[in-house]
Amino acid sequence: MGRPRTPSNVLELRGSFKTHPERRREDLAGVGAFNPMPPPDLLASLVPYWKKIVDQINPVVLTASDVSSVSVMARILCQFELTGDLQHAKELRQWFAQFGMTPVGRTKIAAPKKGPGGNPYADA
Description:
By secondary structure, this protein is mainly alpha-helical. It has helices at 8-14, 47-56, 67-83, 86-98, 103-107.
């Protein structure tokens, strides 16, 4: 099984398109802004877990298509905290890695550059 493709917004933040702009591709699935409010069909018992996860994820990573993924993470986190089952911990680790919520995952996501007023020698 091959490596999963890296989303364009993550590649953009890494600066991958500076030297090869022709490699830029559009991710149609991630179009739209993420709404941090829990969806109306989410169980009330999962709302605190939803908020906990959304508060910890880098907002640059989230798009409108990630609502169901965050809902699944909230459900697994709730089950893990209630049962302490290690299978749920393994699932959470995989989900967290996908969204940059692990030490290795954070290294793959760069923070957006600050506007003017930063280091004048950075682009020199």
